[in-house]
Amino acid sequence: MYYYCLIDFLALLVLLIINHDVLLKKADAADSPVQKRYRYFLYAVIAYYFTDMIWYWLYVESWLSWLYIDTEVYFVVMAAGILLWARFAVEYLGSRTGFSKLLIYAGRILFVYVLIVTPLNRWYPIMFWFDGEGVYQTGIARELMFIAQVALLLLTAVYTLSVSLHSVDRKRQRHRTIGLSGLIMMVFVAVQIFFPTYPLYAISYMLGCCLLRTFVIENEREEYRSSLEIALEREKEHFQELKNAWKLAYTDALTGVKTKLAYVEKGEQIDRQIADGTIRNLAIAVFDVNDLKQVNDNLGHDIGDAFIKKACRLICGVFKKSPVYRVGGDEFVAVLEQEDYEDRHRLLQAFNQQIEANRQNGSVVIAVGMVEYKPGEDKSYKRIFERADMQMYQRKRELKALADEPVVFVGKPENT
């Protein structure tokens, strides 16, 4: 006798297992308007299973007072399920035709009808009653309610199938599945009219929900994943393009050191640190390559580019832990912080010794000016740079004075 409850229980378990992510609104589950409609429909189905299980148990135990209340709830939940089913189908189709609105209004009218007739049934038993032996009896109002449900399910299924004729690809399959599930539910509901004590309604919900989950919700989610993968791939391409653009903007194409744009941003950062009072140890080294114009004029720009690259390698070879910026054709700046700042005097001495050796053997000669940040005196990075630039030009004049004749770059262009 309890097989009726067992079917409801098994159908409920199946629904909870295959739709747990939708019901719990997990993060990886899409939460579109369609998904919400589907979830509300599932809530109504769950409520139906519970009331149906309790109904048959109370019916077998002949607890008529509680059975009467449960039967009232049963009809209300049933009508709510049909309304929510129609709303889901229409929402999924995305159609806003007059007929789709008619389906929704019909579902609402059915729901209101049940809300009105159910309490009236207590005084005028036109929907159901229990006879003297406790046997469940049905009235005309119940049959009208079931006929209305069958009609609404049929109309919704036919409308969905007609829309599928104009759908494409996977949408056509999903629309047909919705229509098919509606037809299956319609058949079981129609048979339920003649067999009121059989769990046919529960079976119709179970089959309908399984079809929807397998061939509609899961299929749509798979399509969403595919489109998401395509979008992510495009995002990666855009990121790579942005990365390449960033590299072009911040990396000097000839020397591989940082560009003037990066230098300007570094100056702005230092200005903020000066304003905040968070900067203490800082030194600036400004470099200028001697005789570049003479090399370009006499030997060509290819030799001149190699001349610049050789000068840059010399600077980076000494100031290894400092960011080096190319701020002009033959001008470079190194910002000395942390370890290089602590070792600044030795680095400057080593650099000038190398320049002296280069001057003697006719290699690249670079003038450098280095100053330290003076808290309280240097109000901006520009002031630090100006002092370093002045020292660099003083050094440049000294090197010019030492030279008996202009330095000529010797050798072929070198690879960086």
From TrEMBL:
<feature type="transmembrane region" description="Helical">
    <location>
        <begin position="73"/>
        <end position="90"/>
    </location>
</feature>
<dbReference type="InterPro" id="IPR000160">
    <property type="entry name" value="GGDEF_dom"/>
</dbReference>
<feature type="transmembrane region" description="Helical">
    <location>
        <begin position="6"/>
        <end position="24"/>
    </location>
</feature>
<dbReference type="InterPro" id="IPR043128">
    <property type="entry name" value="Rev_trsase/Diguanyl_cyclase"/>
</dbReference>
<dbReference type="InterPro" id="IPR029787">
    <property type="entry name" value="Nucleotide_cyclase"/>
</dbReference>
<protein>
    <submittedName>
        <fullName>GGDEF domain-containing protein</fullName>
    </submittedName>
</protein>
<feature type="transmembrane region" description="Helical">
    <location>
        <begin position="102"/>
        <end position="124"/>
    </location>
</feature>
<feature type="transmembrane region" description="Helical">
    <location>
        <begin position="144"/>
        <end position="165"/>
    </location>
</feature>
<feature type="transmembrane region" description="Helical">
    <location>
        <begin position="177"/>
        <end position="195"/>
    </location>
</feature>
<feature type="domain" description="GGDEF">
    <location>
        <begin position="280"/>
        <end position="412"/>
    </location>
</feature>
<feature type="transmembrane region" description="Helical">
    <location>
        <begin position="40"/>
        <end position="58"/>
    </location>
</feature>
<keyword id="KW-0812">Transmembrane</keyword>
<dbReference type="GO" id="GO:0052621">
    <property type="term" value="F:diguanylate cyclase activity"/>
</dbReference>
<dbReference type="InterPro" id="IPR050469">
    <property type="entry name" value="Diguanylate_Cyclase"/>
</dbReference>
<keyword id="KW-0472">Membrane</keyword>
<keyword id="KW-1133">Transmembrane helix</keyword>
<dbReference type="Pfam" id="PF00990">
    <property type="entry name" value="GGDEF"/>
</dbReference>
